[in-house]
Amino acid sequence: MRKESLNIDEHIAGQDTREKQYWLEKLSGNPVKNGFPCDFNPTGKQRHMKKSTFSIRGEPFTRLMAVINNSDPRLHMFLTALSSVLLAKYTGSCDILIGTPIYTPETEGKFINTLLTLRNSVTPEMPFKELLLAVRQTIVQAVDHQNYPLKAIVYHLNMSYSETDFPLFDVVMLLENIQDNKYIEPIQPPVIFSFCRKQQEILLEIQYDANLYR
User: Which DSSP category does 60 fall into?
Assistant: First the structure.
């Protein structure tokens, strides 16, 4: 493990201190990253990614489209909430951190930071509608403050990491209709949920590190 060496002045020159303060407050309290229980002991080896595919179609797809009113940003919020619940159930934690790329159509090439950390509280008694509203607020705020470099955030939080161990999250999710998976490559997370909405179904590709998971 090592702390990333970088010239902070070079990376954040001219950045709004308001954005820096937001992330330091949002990620305060020594957050513990969430990951699915491993089938094999972590070895620090280079990622060996495999994938499994699933789909949502038929009545579940139709009902979901009605809930989100055929909006891709709303679908992304719904899937983020769903992924957060899944992680909470597997880890037993109420403090859930997930990575997600920026929305590409409107923001391509405009920002230094292209990967956001979404932190939400998920409790067993929380109604899903309440979680959706909380996730929506988290995403809106993260997008509003997405101009601050991710490496600078990690630096100021005094976190260490290696090429196969990013300190804030182990799980990244994206909706390919509005996000680009190329932004995930520098982080190399062990689990990626990649959704894609088609005309009559939503495809899900789960990429996972075979060194950790069956």
Answer: H
Q: Which of 163, 158, 161, 175 is nearest to 209 (CA)?
A: 163
Pairing of strands 191-197, 171-175: parallel
69-107 pLDDT, tens digit each: 999 999 999 999 999 999 999 999 999 999 999 887 554
Distance in angstroms (rounded) separating the CA atoms of residues 127 and 106: 32
Q: Identify residue 147 by its one-letter amino acid code.
A: N
The single-letter code of the amino acid at 42 is: P
80 neighbors 100 (Cβ within 8 angstroms): yes
Residue 13 near residue 20 (C-beta atoms within 8 A): no
pLDDT tens for 123-173 read: 999 999 999 999 999 999 999 998 888 888 888 898 887 777 889 999 999
Q: Are residues 64 and 202 in contact, defined by beta-carbon separation less than 8 angstroms?
A: yes
Where does residue 17 rank: exposed (0-12), middle (13-18), buried (19+ CB within 10 A)? exposed
Helix (H, G, I), strand (E, B) or coil at 149: coil
